[in-house]
Amino acid sequence: MKQISSKVFQISLGSVNVFLIVDDGLTLIDTGMKGSADKIFSAIKKGGKDPGNIKRIILTHAHPDHSGSAAEISRRLNIPVFAHYIDAALIEKGVGVREPTHLSPGIINWLIYNIFIKRSDRNIEPVLVEKKLSDHDILPIAGGIQVIHTPGHSAGHVALLIKEEGVLIAADLCANFVGLALSTVYEDKDLGVKSLGKAAEFKFDKALFGHGNPLEKDASQQLKNFYNKLIAE
């Protein structure tokens, strides 16, 4: 686990990151692909925490690389799953992808799509979403986590602002491999760009992404600069 702030950790599963919030127990943000539970638990143990203390799962959206192990982890630990109410409707049906999706421009996105996404399973194991989230919700975790509805990549995509930690879990709002870039696919790219601008208006020093590296300084300004670049193109 990589420590991001006093209460926030990032766990890399290779192609995707998940996140852990340490407070009154543990909160797991996203769950990786199907079959990731043991890898997540192992990383938590290596980080000196007990995965048995996970109290809840929050899913940023329905896509299988983020929600694929939610049902297994929820079942093994008997813990609730949270997600935005729009994507919760898919998650409860075992549907991981809302069609159609549209590929972002660029050779890297073309390669990622054709190697990892095109032939991947679009379905997940269904799981009950006990807590359905909405924009502006404040979750009583780590001093208050604000839910920011950021549709575009997925209609029910959310970013999570941990205010007291100065951290935004941006998920697939965009990616950050060799600099900020659009996510590989969107249901609605223009709406996704608008959501990026919405999130960038909040104040946070660090930002974490489902794919790529964290921004560990001046993150809200960096996202704002990226948004301004996109709308100027």
Biggest sheet architecture: 7 strands, mixed
Order of strands across the main sheet: 1-2-3-4-5-6-8
What proportion of the residues is helical, as a percent range? 25-40%
- Rough shape? globular
SSE series: EEEEHEHHEHEHEEEEEEEEHEH
- Output the radius of gyration: 16 Å
What percent strand?
25-35%
User: Which blocks of ≥5 consecutive residues have pLDDT under 50?
Assistant: none
Number of DSSP strand runs: 16
Total helix count?
7
Distance between the termini: 37 Å
Briefly note the structural class of the backbone.
alpha/beta
Q: Calculate the mean pLDDT score and round it.
A: 95
Characteristic terms for this protein:
alpha/beta; seven-stranded mixed sheet; 7 helices; single chain; globular; 28% helix; five-stranded mixed sheet; 16 strands; 233 residues
Would you give an account of this structure?
There is one protein chain. The protein is α/β, with parallel strands linked by helices. The protein is built from 7 helices and 16 strands. The strands form 4 sheets. It has a 7-stranded mixed beta sheet. Strands 9-10-11-12-16 form a 5-stranded mixed beta sheet, with no helix packed on it. A two-stranded antiparallel sheet has the order 7-15. A hairpin with a 5-residue loop joins strand 9 and strand 10. The protein starts with a strand and ends with a helix. The mean pLDDT is 95.
Secondary structure: elements and pairs:
Blueprint: E1 2-3, E2 8-12, E3 17-23, E4 25-29, H1 37-46, E5 54-58, H2 64-67, H3 70-77, E6 81-84, H4 85-91, E7 102-103, H5 107-117, E8 131-133, E9 138-139, E10 145-149, E11 158-162, E12 167-171, E13 175-176, E14 180-181, E15 185-186, H6 189-200, E16 206-209, H7 219-232
Parallel strand pairs: 4-5, 5-6, 6-8, 12-16
Antiparallel strand pairs: 1-2, 2-3, 3-4, 7-15, 9-10, 10-11, 11-12, 13-14
